[in-house]
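Raw record, unedited: mannose-1-phosphate guanylyltransferase
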Amino acid sequence: MKVVAVIMAGGKGERFWPRSRRTLPKQFLSLTEDGKTMIQHTVERIKSLVSIQDVFIVTNKDYESLVKEQLSGLPAENILLEPAARNTAPCVGLAAAYIRKKYEDAVMLVLPSDHLIKFNGIFINTLKDAIQVAEEDTNMVTIGITPNYPETGYGYINFGDEKAGANNVYQVERFVEKPNLQRAKEYLESGKYLWNSGMFVWKTSTILAQFEKYLPEMYQGLLKIEEAIGSSQEVEVLEKEFSDFKSESIDYGIMEKASNIYTLPGSFGWDDVGSWLALERFNRTNEDGNVVSGNVISINTKNAIVQGSDKLIATIGVENLIIVDTEDAMLICAKDSTQDVKKVIENLKICNRNEYL
C-alpha cells in the first residue's frame, strides 16, 4: 500500500522565544550544528520510506513561503494551508481528506515537524513495524517513547498485552494526561507506560472512519472540503469549513475514545525539543559545559547556553544561564526556569507589544 507522510507544522514554538516568532516559528529554525532546520530534519529522516512527492505539510497559511523555501522538490499541492489554528484533529483530518482525494487510501505517517531523533535507523525500523500493523484491518498505531526518568511534561500511554503474532507491539489500554511527579515515578516503576510522542500511523480509510464516528460534525466539514478539492471553490470552502471546526486534539477527540489502538515502544533517541535546554542534548558542549553559538567570549562561565550572532556577547562568572540574543530582543533565563518563557509571551500580549511576538 502507498505510504505517505503528514508533517504537522503549524505550531508557534513559543518556548523558543526570542528566536521563534510568529513569522518564523521553531520548526523553521536551525537549532543544530549542521545548519538544517527542524522541518528539514523531519522530512530528511523519512526519505528511505517516503519520497518528497508523497510528503504533505500541514501548516498555517502564513508559512507557505517558508515551506517552499526550505523543502525544495515538495509539490505545491502538498502544502495544505490551515486558515486558522484548530489543533491536531482538524490538521490530521484535513490531510486525510486530501490524501483520500489523491490516492483513495494510503498508510499515513503523522509526524510533528519539530522533534529531533538521534538514531535514525532504529526509528525507520520502528515505523516499518508500525506500517505493517496499520495495514491490518482498522488498526491504529501510536509510537510511544520508553521513559528513562519521571517526566511530568508529557502525556503517557498505558499499554497492555503484546499483540498476537507481533513482537514489541502492544495493545493500548488508555492515554493519560501529564502526571504529577509522584504519579510519573509510579508510571516509570511499573514498566507499563510510555511517553506520548504525538506520532501516529494508520490508513486514511481508518482514521476518516474514526472522524465519522467520534467527530461527526467535523467529518461532514471534511467531506465538503474533499469534494471541493481541485475546483474553483476549493479555497473558499476550505476557509469556511475549517474555520468552523472546533479546536480539538487528535488525542482527546479520537485516540482516547477509539479501540484497536496499538503502540510500539521507541528507543531511538527522541527529543521533543520543548525548551532551550534541548540544545545541550543535541549539540556539543565545551570544556566548561557551555553550548555557545555566535560571537561569544566566556570567562568563568559554566553550564550555560549562549546563542548570539554578530554582536559580541561576553559572560563573566555566571552558571546555569540561558542567554539568547536577537536583533530586537534578548532572553536571560535561569536554566531551571525555561518553562516560564511562555510567561514573557503572555506579558507581551497583554501589553500589546506585538512587534516582539
